[in-house]
Write a structure and sequence with these properties.
Blueprint: H1 2-14, H2 19-26, E1 39-44, E2 50-58, E3 61-69, H3 73-86, H4 91-94, H5 99-106, H6 114-150, H7 161-183, H8 188-200, H9 204-212, H10 223-233, H11 242-254, H12 272-296, H13 301-304, H14 316-325, H15 336-345, H16 353-361, H17 364-369, H18 376-388
Antiparallel strand pairs: 1-2, 2-3
Bound molecules: fe (ii) ion.
Length: 389
């Protein structure tokens, strides 16, 4: 009897709404606008209520999502429901959220309010659709990249250790490229292009390692050229318009060349992606190698470049070349310390101030400095690099 009275009283208070509709409607979840969303949609339903959805993604998952509405309590309940249901989920899964799953999540709604669930689901779909349209090329490229890399996995799905490193490196270069492109204030389509190009910039490494068991270009194959060849024979250009494809092809082919060997026609707009990828690539290699040097003296380096041993002496030819040309050729490297000096020389070759800021955030020069011998030449080198920054 007592429970029946409580139910009746709650019905009076909530107007017959389910507990969750009342809860979400009176304390909305994820309400408000998001700054710099990856996608956005706004729909006004036949009832005159408007709903907006803002969403941010990371690695194809919804990282953050919010809604606004000028509607009543049940609109707030529906907006809260779709954002709660989508938050943290893979984008692909969120496409399944629809009016009936929203109603189910809410424990039902009065029939005259069910259109609120439809409006919320439709607004979410529109935001997801806008996201997918912008990301179409990147999604096709990511999908192709994973399928291509899978060819080099064994029966257990494992890549050789050296290729696993390249696979992870490619993903981090994509992330660095996106950050630099954002830092340069590029338009969204160009930011996505930079991210995609970062992902495939080292695609030539996979066939190179499978054929030769080495990443040493001089003894095997130029992995930049090889990367462009692979993209072309695989028909990847069909995902892009002609200008974007041209930028990607040049960036992949020339990302690993000495600055002095880059053709002058790439100085302008066509070469922007190349400069950006070169920075993104260097930034990750500097970071990764310095982590490895600090943890175990970069023990896996000789597996990648067989002419190098794990010693810590400095080869005189490396310093001579650096003092003369502010660059170090891979062919001269003999020890881990030589490799670290080469990384230091890359500070002269970073194209964008924003990349230098990212390098400073990651304390790269300090981490390089502590691994180098305390000699007069090295002190002068470090002072010169700091002045250059
Ligand atoms: Fe590379």
């Amino acid at each position: 009897m007592k429970e029946e009275m409580i139910d009746l009283l709650m019905d009076k208070i909530t107007g017959g709404l389910s507990e969750r509709v009342f809860d979400y409607g009176s304390s909305p979840r994820n309400y408000g606008e998001l700054e710099n969303p990856d996608s956005y949609a706004r729909i006004t339903g036949p009832c005159g209520d408007t709903m907006e959805i803002f969403l941010k993604t990371k690695n194809e998952n919804i990282e953050d999502i919010s809604y606004t509405t000028d509607g009543c309590m049940t609109s707030h309940a529906a907006g809260s429901a779709v954002t709660v249901m989508a938050n943290g989920k893979p984008v692909k899964e969120c496409i399944r959220i629809n009016q009936s799953s929203v109603l189910e999540h809410l424990g039902g709604m009065p029939s005259e309010s069910e259109h609120c669930a439809l409006l919320a689901a439709k607004t979410l779909h529109k935001a997801l659709g806008n996201y997918a349209t912008d990301k179409k090329e990147l999604m096709l490229l990511t999908d192709w990249f994973d399928r291509h890399v899978n060819r080099y996995r064994n029966g257990e799905g494992t890549l050789p250790a050296a290729l696993e490193l390249k696979y992870l490196h490619s993903q981090r270069v994509a992330e660095n490229a996106r950050l630099i492109a954002q830092g340069l204030g590029l338009k969204k389509a160009k930011i996505l292009l930079a991210e995609g190009c970062g992902l495939v910039h080292d695609i030539g490494r996979f066939s190179q390692y499978a054929c030769y068991g080495s990443f040493h270009d001089a003894d095997t194959v130029d992995h930049g050229k090889e990367g462009r060849r692979i993209l072309e024979i695989e028909g990847v250009q069909s995902y892009f318009d002609a200008d974007d494809w041209e930028s990607i092809a040049w960036a992949v082919e020339y990302h690993n060349k000495k600055a002095s060997d880059i053709p002058s026609h790439l100085d302008g707009e066509t070469g922007l992606l190349l400069r950006l990828i070169r920075d993104a690539d260097k930034l990750d290699i500097m970071d990764l190698v310095m982590q490895s040097v600090a943890s175990d003296g970069f023990s896996e380096l000789p597996d990648m470049l067989p002419q190098i041993r794990t010693g810590r002496e400095l080869t005189p030819a490396v310093m001579e070349e650096l003092m003369k040309n502010k660059t170090v050729s891979v062919d001269h490297l003999r020890t881990v310390t030589d490799f670290v000096v080469m990384l230091a020389s890359w500070f002269y070759d970073l194209n964008y101030a924003f990349t230098r800021c990212l390098a400073a955030d990651r304390h790269i020069l300090q981490r390089i400095a502590i691994e180098l011998p305390d000699t007069k030449d090295i002190r002068e080198l470090l002072t010169d690099i700091r002045a250059h920054l």
